[in-house]
Design goal:
- By secondary structure, this protein is mainly alpha-helical.
- The protein has three helices and three strands.
- A three-stranded antiparallel β-sheet has the order 1-2-3.
- The longest helix is centred in the first third of the chain and has 30 residues.
Amino acid sequence: MFDGRSLGDDQRLIDEWRDVIEKRAAQSRELETRLAQLSGTARSPDGLVTVTVGPAGDLAALDLGEGIRRRAAAVTAREIVSTLRAAHVALVAAATAGADETVGAGTATGRAIISAYVEGLGPSAGPSGARGPSGGGDASRPRGTASASALQEPIVPKQSGDSTSD
């Protein structure tokens, strides 16, 4: 060819690109499947409140122990909200693990997925789970969902002599 490579070299390069594309597509499909099945569960320190959230951070289950009847309603409400936030933290941890096991948590795609969960669930659901005095974030705020394939990193073939890097 014109750049000093043979047709065989070009074919190998195309085959390598195809393999990379197919691998990334499979990783994206696996991640999308995992994200659709995610949940996060947390239990209050006293064990009387258990909250499970679904893939979008919405309340999927709320279990209250019988001992809750001996509490003031305001105390119960605060415990439910606190446990809901802890379930969101568990959901972000599950999304992070899913991203890491499929596309890699450190890749642009992995970071975008994790960021979408953290942003959608509020600051208290972040990697540290740290909460300010008010608990941070609005746990009822709707979260947009992102398709893993829509966030997949572009595949840009490198040309010989290309000075750009990843």
